[in-house]
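Box S1 | Example of a co-folding query
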Amino acid sequence: MSFFNSIGRSMTRAPRNAKRSPTPTSATFPPETQAPKQTQVAAPPAQKPLFLCSPFVEAALVKGNFKTIVMLPKYVDIMEWVAVNRCVLPMLLFDFYNNLNEFYGVLTEFCTQQNCPTMSAGTTLNYTWINQDRKHVHLPATTYIDYVMTWVQNMLNDDSVFPTKSGHDFPPSFPSTVKHIYRQLLRVFAHIYHAHFAQILHLRSEPHFNSLFAHFLAFGAEFELLEMRDLRGTSSAPVGVGALWERWKGMGILAVKS
Ligand SMILES: [Zn+2]
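Box S1 (continued) | Returned holo structure for zinc ion
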C-alpha cells in the first residue's frame, strides 16, 4: 500500500468544496505570466505558532526520514526522469492535490471571507493576486485558494500539459508548469498552517497533515520543484511554514541539502 493510499484510508473523507467558484480562465491566471506575488503587511506581534510547538511539530504518521519515502529513481534532469517515469510525477501531483483539496474541504467553514479577508501565510505576509488588469489585489483566502485549486485541477486534467496517452510528449514548458503548480500548492499549505492549524488540531488531523506536507516538501526538494525563496519568504515577510521546514530539517525528518 502506498504512502498516500495509507493517508487516504486513514483520513475521514471530506466532501468536495461545494463553493468552488467558476473556473478561472487563462485571462485571469495564465501559469507563468500572472503568478501572484507576496507582499508585506503591517501587524508584527510575534508569537510562536502552534504548528511549531511540541508535540504538534513532531506529529507525523511516518517517523524517520521522509527522504526515504521519496523512492524514485535518480535522474539527470526532470525531463529525462519524466521520459522514463512518465506516470509517476503526474500521479504524485494528483495525490498531493487531492489530499490537500480534501483537507481544505473540511476547513471551508472556517476559511471564510470574514475570518480570512486576505491570503495570509505569516504574521507579516499576505499573497496578492494579479487580476485581469495586471494589478496586484488582495483576495479573501477562500477566493484565492479556490482559484488556485481550480487552476491546478485544470492543469492536471489537460492532456496537452500532462499527456496521458503513450506516444505523446511532454511539452517543453512542463518543468516550469510543475514548479508553478508546486508554488501555488505551497501557498495553500502555508495559509492552512498559518490560519487554520487550530482547526486541524481540533480535527486531530495534525499527523496526517504534517505527513502530507513533509512528503510534499521532501519530494519537492528532491526533484528541485521547490524554490527556497517561496518557502522562506523574506526577512521582513517570512513564510510561516519556512520555520517548520527548518525545524523538521533539524529533527532529521527532511534530509535535504539546502
Ligand atoms: Zn483561511
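Residues 1-36, 68-76 have pLDDT under 50 and may be disordered. Residues 111, 116, 141, 191, 195-196 surround zinc ion (CB under 6 Å).
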